Amino acid sequence: MSASLPHVEEHAELPGGFLAGGLSAGIKTSGRPDLGLIVVDGAGAASAAGVFTTNRVQAAPVTLSRHHLDLTGGRARAFVVTSGCANAATGPAGDDDQAAIAAAVGAAFGVPPEETLAASTGLIGTRLPVARVRDGLAALAPTGLSATAHGFEAFATAMMTTDSRRKLATTTVALPADDLSLRRVRVSGAAKGVGMIHPRMATMIAVILTDAAASPALLADLLRDASASTFEQLSVDGDTSTNDTVVVLASGTSQAEAPRPGSPEAAQLGAALTAVCRSLARQQAADGEGASTLITCVVTGAADLVDARAVARAVVRSNLVKAAVHGRDPNWGRVAAAAGAAVRPDGTSVDLDPASLTIGLAGSAVFSGIPLPFEVASVSVAMDAPELVIELDLGRGEATAEAFGCDLTEAYVVENSAYST
């Protein structure tokens, strides 16, 4: 699936045209970093686009960001993230809190409030301590932001809640400039979220930054396509958050020409964006709450892309499959059952015939229309690895897709049994 995508490094690089940073503003009682900010370094706004949760209970930062993108036609100068409080299901007061934070960004950095995007993560039903956030923004304003990888790392750290590590990804592509020379364009991203993860958009947050030039309309199209094959194919526990947010900002400082929609250059930029999103999604799945194994499900031979994606999602979100993976149990029947129960977004069943279905676990064929003989002990040993690849060929067409998940462990139950206390 990833063969056509550019190579990605799992580290921070801050593309030109941005400043970033993070600190502890006192939102978290632990004192850990909880306020992150990215601002455009210059007089103009960046092109911007976003995809958001489809949960009907949407957090105040989600509704504010949607509104601001509509107001500006896809332009932004700042992206502020708070962690430790979701600001979801907080009513009009929560909306007022989020607007006050946008105004505080404007006051500290000279940014029009409507050109501020926001995301929050943490406990649902709690309000943001606006005064503490305002003080934190003021502390960042003089010297707290930088144009370095360190600044982007500090931003990524401030997003974390139950994450055990930062999620970072960077790639580059070469795009033509006005003089026909090629310019190096960077695409870099940071993400958080290892529980309540089952995006249907689009508690996960991701921001993708690039120094490419691109219209807001093109960015929106590229982000929708990238999310559909990456973040929307990610499931840790099957629960869709109130706060899922993915934002992309393009500064244009690389001096490469803005790609035309449908052009090879637009396809290059889209591949870079997809590669970064894919890496971040895989990192999220691998760091799922309590997880010990990244599950990658690769589906081939589907009648169409919708079927392929639906089957891959069904397998990685199955609790029975996840439990079997944790136990290193090559119980392929659970994979077959999950695939057979897959439904398309319109509620119709996937085109799947068990007579033409094949299944592979950890590189071993275990089913092909009928059960295949295999050495259970050796497959179990092969499953004991940081990543398990589950392969299904539906034998119905040419479409392919992949999805990412993780095993279900006792640690997940412990983590979520007392999350609010």
Structure description:
The protein is an alpha+beta fold and 421 residues long. Helices cover 33% and strands 24% of the residues. It has eleven helices and 15 strands. A hairpin with a 5-residue loop joins β7 and β8. α1 packs across α2, α5 crosses α6 and α7 crosses α9. It starts with 17 loop residues before the first strand and ends with a helix.
Beta-strand fraction estimate: 15-25%
Q: How many helices?
A: 11
How far apart are the first and last residues' alpha carbons, in Å?
41 Å
Q: What is the rounded Rg?
A: 22 Å
Largest sheet: 6 strands, mixed
Q: What letter string, H or E per element, gives the SSE order?
A: EEEHEEHEHHEEEHEHEHHHEEHEEH
| Residue share in helix | 25-40%
- The number of E-state strands comes to 15
Q: List the strand order in the largest sheet.
A: 4-3-10-9-8-7
Mean pLDDT level: 93
Shape: globular
Question: What class do helices, strands and sheet pairing give?
Answer: alpha+beta
What does the oligomeric state look like here? Answer: single chain
Low-confidence stretches: none
